[in-house]
Amino acid sequence: MIDKTLLNDLELSLENCLADIVDEEKHLGLDEIRGLFYAQMITPNKNNPLVWLSALFYGERPPLTENQINGLDTAAAAVHEAYHELFVNNQLSFPYDFDQLDDAMAEAAYGWCQGFYIGLLINEEFWFGKKSERLRANDHDLLAIRNSAKLFMCMITKDFSTFDKAKIAELKKLIIEQGEEANDDMLAASLFPNVPIAVKTLQIYGTKVMLANAPKAAATPVVNTLKLGRNDPCHCGSGKKYKKCCGAA
What we know:
By secondary structure, this protein is mainly alpha-helical. It has helices at 4-19, 30-42, 49-55, 66-88, 103-122, 124-128, 140-157, 165-177, 184-191, 195-213.
């Protein structure tokens, strides 16, 4: 089991390594780093490692000296190994308790979501689907995956054009009923409480795909013990239970 203090030290070491290379606004912060590596762990077909390293600089990796490359590789590999150990031992879980949410935790969680979204974009087609993808109404599982991924897109970019229009209409109605203006900021804020269930939905799906693609005699088996309860609140933000919304038969 990875000690939380050790993991925090590894993450801080990586952040310090990035800070020694570029200015603060040009690299991911600590919470964003955590979200990025979480997304990396639950994503099958992780692509070229250089793409993930570039993501630490918001996709714009600067020219690096040999010493900087070695230091960055070492720090990033240590964090990756720690997260991988959490994942294969079924200890990787969303790190914030929204039942205890305060302003400081909300700020940290939003930063985490930004890093997580960057990680999802690296494998955009897997998580968001092809641009030509047309899902049918009875494609419940895949619709849930797409809506869960798009939840992060909507929260971070405030672009709701690809999100389920019926869900957006429901959210606007709820916001207006609460006496608020149903603008983009309020829509994004209304999606925020659904982050934990959206992460859980994506993690179950990513792990399921990895299990299906893994060699039968894999040296390090990946075991999926996560389950999405049908009585859990739906990830789309409708306020309904999953079984009566995106999980409806």
